[in-house]
């Protein structure tokens, strides 16, 4: 059975990011995949402590809510990541998580090697402003990091204008998210 791991960087349980992620999950589950979800707003998450344990071990020394994450990613076929745009970037919660993904790469001082390459990735973003350019740099930033992990971006959905939402557009993107979830399962 295939497996996907979902990371939700939105603190709003019923926000647009969460709703679009839910559609990806529904699509993937409809095809019979196993889904593991991490809520990046969980109060049990600590930031990276810079101990460099992960330079010599394929895991993280911090024993908290994210502790099972490396193993989950290792076993997964695909990763789904979602975040709202806060101040032109991913949320603080998502950035704390991103630092904790340092074990995704090996670095012997000369060469950086991805430890768990080949994952397919879907990304989801929501932003208040209707202009996609507002979130573009933040989206590029995290997409580049995923690429450096050897992960392949399959689709990226950006719902813009949540201050005055176009609900028809949101429906279209919800359907796209569902299909993305179905397509993750091969
Ligand atoms: C602290 C904060 C900063 C934000 N910064 C931006 C921003 O820079 N650009 C923007 O378009 N929207 C910004 N927003 C609006 C959110 O992106 C918007 O409300 C989005 O729908 C939140 O996602 P959610 O519905 O998944 O919670 C900001 C919201 C908050 C709370």
Written overview of the protein:
The chain is an alpha/beta fold and 186 residues long. The chain has one domain (3-184): Rossmann fold, CATH 3.40.50. The chain is built from 6 helices and 7 strands. The strands form 2 sheets. Strands 2-1-3-6-7 form a 5-stranded parallel sheet, sandwiched between helices. Helix 5 (133-148) links the parallel strand 6 and strand 7 (152-160). The protein is globular and about 50 Å long. The model has no long low-confidence stretch (mean pLDDT 96). Bound molecules: flavin mononucleotide. Residues 10, 12, 15-18, 84-88, 126-129, 134, 162 line the site of flavin mononucleotide.
Summarize the structure.
The chain is an alpha/beta fold and 186 residues long. The protein is 37% helix and 23% strand.
Keywords:
186 residues, binds flavin mononucleotide, two-stranded antiparallel ribbon, 7 strands, globular, five-stranded parallel β-sheet, single chain, alpha/beta, Rossmann fold
- The chain-level structural class is alpha/beta
CATH homologous superfamily designation: Flavodoxin domain
The CATH architecture category equals 3-Layer(aba) Sandwich
One letter per element, helices H and strands E, the order comes to EHEHHEHEEEHEH
Q: Within the CATH hierarchy, at the fold level, what is the topology? A: Rossmann fold
């Amino acid at each position: 059975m295939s497996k996907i791991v979902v990371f939700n960087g939105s603190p709003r349980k019923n926000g647009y990011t969460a709703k679009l992620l839910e559609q990806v999950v529904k699509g993937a589950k409809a095809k019979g995949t196993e889904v593991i979800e991490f809520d990046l707003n969980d109060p049990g998450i600590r930031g990276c402590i810079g101990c460099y344990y992960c330079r010599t071990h394929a895991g993280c020394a911090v024993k908290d809510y994210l502790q099972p994450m490396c193993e989950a990613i290792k076993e997964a076929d695909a990763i789904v990541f979602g975040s709202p745009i806060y101040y032109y970037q991913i949320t603080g919660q998502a950035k704390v998580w991103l630092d904790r993904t340092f074990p995704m790469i090996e670095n012997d001082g000369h060469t950086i090697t991805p430890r768990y390459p080949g994952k397919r990735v879907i990304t989801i973003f929501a932003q208040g402003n209707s202009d996609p350019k507002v979130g573009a740099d933040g989206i590029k930033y995290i997409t580049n990091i995923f690429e450096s992990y050897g992960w392949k971006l399959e689709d990226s959905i950006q719902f813009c204008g949540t201050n005055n939402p176009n609900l028809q557009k949101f429906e279209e993107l919800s359907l796209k998210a569902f299909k993305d979830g179905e397509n993750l399962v091969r």
